[in-house]
Amino acid sequence: MIRTIITPIDGSVHAQMALDLSTELAVKYDARLVLLHVVTHDDNIPEDLYDAAARELMAAETGPAAGPVRRSKVLEHIGNTLLRKAQDLAKRKGVKNVETVIDLGEASKRILHHAENMSADLIIMGSRGFGRLKGLVLGSVSHNVFHLAPCSCVTVHHTDGKSEYDGIKSILVPTDGSDHADKAVELASDIAAKLGVKLSLVYVMSRGPSLENLRDSIDMAQLSESARNELDPAKHPIAEHVSAAVIPPVISKEVLNEIGEQILARGQRTAVEKGVKSLNVVLIDGDPARKIVQVAKREKADLIAMGSRGLGGAESLLSGSVSYKVNHAAPCSCLIVR
C-alpha cells in the first residue's frame, strides 16, 4: 500500500523527526524513500550552519582564484550535506532503496511537483522548518503541502513536548463513515498492524452532514425502524440537502448514536481484518475538531489519521475545516489520507 515515501530535508528538528518516521515506515513496507532538499534563496538558514558550510567550501578551494563563495553555492553545499547524512542514516536503519534529490525554487511547489511526478504514496514532513514564522500557519510550506498534496501526507509535530522522535505507539482515527474516512481507517489499520501498536477509532456525533450524506454513510437496513423514519427524506423536504449550519438539527442524539455505533463497528471489522491486535472505539458528542483533539490527548495518540474529506464533501483550505483545525491544535503528528 505504501511503495514510495517522500521526505523533505532541511536540517531542522522537525525534519529530523519526519526522517525518523519515514525510515521506520520505509523499513516496514520495504518502500522506496526519496529524500528531497529544496534550495530557497531566503534568509532562513541559521547563521552558524551557513558560516560553517562557507568555511568548508573556502577551505576546499586553493589557488589565486580562491575567495568568498557565492551564496547559491553555499546553500547547495548545505543541501547536499544534509541529504548525504540523511541517506546514511536511512541506510543504517535498514532502508534498502534510498534516493536523494536536490532542487531549487519555492519549497511547497517543488515538493508537490516531485510527489506527483514520482507517484508518491506518502509525504512525511516536519511541521516547522527554519522559516521566520516558526509555526504551522496559513501559507506555510507544511500547511500548503498538507492540503494540496496529490497523495496522503503526514505532518510531524512534537508529541507531549518531546523534541525527538519516540516512535508511534498509538494511532487515532476519526471516522464519519465517508469514503475518505474509510480509506483513513484502512491505511491507519495497516500501519498499526505493521507497527504492532494500539488503534483507536472515534466517531463524533455531528449535526453538520445533510440527511442524504448520513444515509449514504450507513446501511439503512441495519438501523431501527424509528431511526429509519427520522432519516426519511419525505419527512424533511427542506433539510434533505442542506447542512445543519443553515437548517437547525433535525436528527436526534439517539439516532446519531445508532449511526455512530454502526460506523465504528465497520471500522472495527476493517482493523481486525488488517491484523490490529489492540483496538478500542470512542463515541462522543460535540464539536468534531475539538473532540478529536481531546480524545487524542486522552488516548496519548502519537498519530491522528483523517480522511481528506468528510461527509460535507469538499476538501478546502478554509480555516473552518475539521482537518485544518485538528492539524493546528493536535498534540501529535497528523496524517491526512487521500
From TrEMBL:
Pfam families: Usp. SUPFAM superfamilies: Adenine nucleotide alpha hydrolases-like. Residues 1-157, 168-338 form the UspA domain. Signal peptide: none annotated. InterPro entries: Rossmann-like_a/b/a_fold, Universal_stress_UspA, UspA. Belongs to the universal stress protein A family. This is Universal stress protein.
